[in-house]
Write a structure and sequence with these properties.
This protein has about 300 residues and is mainly α. The chain folds into 3 domains: about 80 residues, Serine Threonine Protein Phosphatase 5, Tetratricopeptide repeat (Alpha Horseshoe); about 70 residues; about 90 residues, no CATH class. About 75% of the residues lie in helices and about 0% in strands.
């Protein structure tokens, strides 16, 4: 009985301390000391009420990443408040875009996609489109919806280009290739140039290598052909020609394979690892070992 009494006293004291910290946070909020309010709310046991207060205080303190995380948590923990949380996330996303705060923008948009997938993002999609790296996966989700909203020609060009690059960065070359090809066909965008063509070729090369690794040379061959035409003398194009030779050899056409490898070996560029690869293929071909090496998946 005594142990129960001690435990009850501890619970009462802890609850009282938590309530005191929440009241201190409320007092700081009313005084306009937003950062202090955030600090106090973060020491209180989480609840929907406290999370909402934390999100609002963080937004007012311009701690936008904290606000985005708190709004998202509110909507996840209490689905009945998802609309309120989505509205807070939308305000946070706009503020993050205005303040040039990509991490907060990404957190806010990710939260919106989770709580309110149909929420219109408008120009925020364009801002996200130019953020590289870990944002690519989110971009592949957001950008198609932005395109479906029917933006103007210039905005659509930027979105298509960004979507293609995001798909490629996320490893989805099967979807990236037609998207990037669409960007190339549309043209007229300042971001479209040789770099984009090389990116397209790299994705085509990747698809060719995947097909060849699955022992599907007839499927691999056209991918290698397209990649080689995208970047004839670059690393991507020359590696594609080595792959083209491998695909022809796998189909029993040693003459065509040798011609492809010789073209790479004789290309008017400084010799590099791809040159060495083509020369190795020719050596193996002359020794009669090329068929076996290609079937074993040499680089």
């Amino acid at each position: 009985m005594r142990r129960f009494g001690v435990a009850l006293m501890c619970l009462t004291a802890c609850h009282s301390a938590g309530s005191d910290r929440e009241r201190l946070g409320d007092a700081a909020w009313h005084d306009g000391r937003w950062n202090d309010a955030v600090g106090w709310y973060r020491t209180v046991a989480p609840s929907a009420r406290v999370t909402a207060k934390l999100a609002d205080a963080a937004f007012l303190a311009d701690s936008l990443a904290v606000a985005a995380a708190a709004w998202t948590k509110l909507g996840v923990d209490d689905p009945q408040r998802a609309g309120e949380a989505a509205s807070g996330l939308a305000r946070t996303a706009v503020a993050a875009e205005r303040d040039d705060n990509p991490p907060a923008l990404v957190l806010a948009i990710a939260g919106l996609r989770r709580l309110a997938p149909g929420w219109p993002l408008g120009r925020l999609s364009l801002r996200l489109a130019h953020e590289p790296g870990p944002f690519d996966t989110l971009a592949t989700s957001v950008l198609p919806a932005a395109l479906a909203a029917g933006p103007g020609r210039g905005a659509a060009d930027s979105l298509i280009l960004a979507l293609g690059r995001a798909l490629r960065a996320s490893g989805d070359c099967q979807r990236a290739v037609p998207t990037l090809e669409g960007a190339v066909r549309r043209g007229g965008n300042a971001g479209i140039g040789e770099d984009l063509v090389r990116e397209l070729g790299a994705c085509q090369l990747s698809l060719g290598l995947q097909a060849l690794s699955k022992q599907l040379p007839t499927e691999a061959e056209p991918w290698f052909d397209r990649a080689a035409r995208s970047d004839p003398l670059g690393q991507v194009g020359r590696r594609a020609m080595v792959g083209f030779g491998d695909a022809r050899l796998a189909q029993g056409d040693m003459a065509a394979a040798a011609l492809a490898w010789q073209g790479v070996a004789a290309a008017p560029v400084s010799p590099d690892s791809i040159t060495a690869l083509a020369l190795e293929r020719l050596r193996l071909g002359n020794s009669g070992a090329a068929t076996d090496s290609t079937s074993k998946g040499l680089p």
